[in-house]
Amino acid sequence: MNHKSFIVLDLDGTLTRDRKDAPYPEKPPREPVHVAARAASAHGYGLLVVTARNMRSFQGDLERIRAHTLPVARDWIARHGLAPDDVLGGKPWAGPRGFYVDDRALHLEEFVWRFTGPLAHAHVAVLANTIPDGEAHEAAQRLERWLHVASYLYPQGDLPAEAAEDPLVGAPVPDDAWLLHYDPAQANLLAPAMAMAAAVLDRPRGILAGGPGRPHALRLSPPGKTDPDPLRILLPDCRP
Fold it and tell me: How far apart, in whole angstroms, are the C-alpha atoms of residue 213 and residue 223?
C-alpha cells in the first residue's frame, strides 16, 4: 500500500442500509454515501472497506470471515458499482449501542456534504489573523471534515510544532480558492460555526447573520474577494 490518503468506509449501515429483514446479499445501498465515495475517489483518495460483519456470530474467527464473509461482501460492493482498493474483515464489533471514536472520523452526513455538497469542488485557504497555538491549529484542521483545505496561511513567526509539521501550512494557494478568515482566539468555535454554515449552505442561498457582541469564528469569501463583512458569514449561491 502506498502513501496516498484513503477513505476508510464501514460496510453495514454505512454503505448498506441496515434493514433487518434483508439478508446480506440483498441489503439496499445507502446511495448518498456511494455517490460521495465515488466523488472521493475522483478527488484522488483511495477507498478501503473495513467491516465487523460476523465478528460476533463467528466469535472473531478470522479464517471463517475470510472464507465466508468477505466473498459475499466483495460481491455486493462490486454489484453496486464501487471499486475499493481492498475489503478487509476483522474490525472489532462495538456492540449494539457502542461507538467508534477516532480523531480522523467523519459522520455520514459530514462525509456526504464534504464530497457532494455545494463546496465539494472548492479549494479553501484558511487565513489566520494571528499565529495559532497547537490546539488552535488542530481546531483549524477539523475544518477538513467539511472543506477541501488547500493551505493554511499564518503570519510569519515561530509556529507550534503541530503547525510547523503540517505540509499544508504555507502551501501554494490555488487561483480559484475561497478564503476562510479565521481568528485563532475563537478556535473552540470553529467546528460548531462550520457545522452551522454547512446546514445553512444546504439551502439554495445561505446567510448566517451575526451582530454586535456575537462575533463569528470564521468568515468565508469567494474567489476574488478578500474583505467579507466582519459580522456575517456570507455564503453566496454556489450550488451546481
Answer: 28
195 in the Ramachandran plot: left (φ > 0), alpha (ψ -120 to 50) or beta? Answer: alpha
pTM to 2 decimals?
0.81
Task: Report the SS3 class of residue 75.
Answer: helix
Looking at domain 6-110, its CATH superfamily turns out to be: HAD superfamily/HAD-like (3.40.50.1000)
d(CA 45, CA 53): 24
Query: What ranges do the domains of the chain cover?
Result: 6-110, 118-235
pLDDT value of residue 162: 92
Residue type, 179: L
The string of pLDDT tens digits covering residues 122-180 is 888 888 889 999 999 998 898 899 889 999 999 999 999 999 999 999 999 888 888 88
d(CA 68, CA 64): 6
